[in-house]
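Thanks for the sequence, V.! I ran hydroxyisourate hydrolase right away. Repeating your input here for the record:
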Amino acid sequence: MEEINEIANDVMEEANADESESQHSTDDYDELEKSSCQGKYHKQSYRKAWESLPDFKGWLQGVVGQKNRAFCSYCQVTLFAHRLSLLKHTCTIKHQRASQKALLKITDDDDLGLNTVSSVGLEVEEVMEGQIDASPSKSMNMAHSSAFPLSTHVLDTSKGQPVAQLPVSLYRLIDSRWTLINESVTNQDGRCSSLIQKQEFVAGRYKLHFDTDRYFELERKETLYPFVEIAFDVHAPLDHYHIPLLLSAFGYSTYRGS
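Predicted structure:
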């Protein structure tokens, strides 16, 4: 009887050992499969050609010694070298703000140059009368002259370059209806300042309409915004209002410049 009990115990122990071994094998396989999937997901190689693409030009760089990482010079952060992930990064608020700061210095430098021209006494009326030699693009760049109290400057943050030949329309809210005031296009520097004369610029509510769809069609890029409208209130019509637009395919921002 004792021998039968010992044999039964041995059989039970062997069965438990086999079940435990089988469970460990299954767990090890699941862990290996999970690790393999994670490796495939994160294993991406940076491509130098990305730096010349419109979405990444001006801010994307590779990381030395790390083939699966990329570096954003605007945000000063490293990112996974996954193209879709990098495109999503361009739409983040952090990247938009960082690109705005990077391009703001260019805008400020240009504004200082415009102020210098005005201080020398080169008035827009003199340009129109032919008293000085100036091209149309230079005359339109005199955004701070007394004749043009409103100006805008459009910059493509994904390229770090101005947006030229972009249609811009100015509207004013009159009797609860948006009334078209004038239409124009940005020059080669991305600026437009001839939308309204000083004597027509009165206190009220205005909006700038930018035809961004046409621009991105020419760039062969998909965009979320077919147009951009910026509404603003004018409380001091004797002051100059500079309303820039920082633009990308999936985001935009604005501020009041000087």
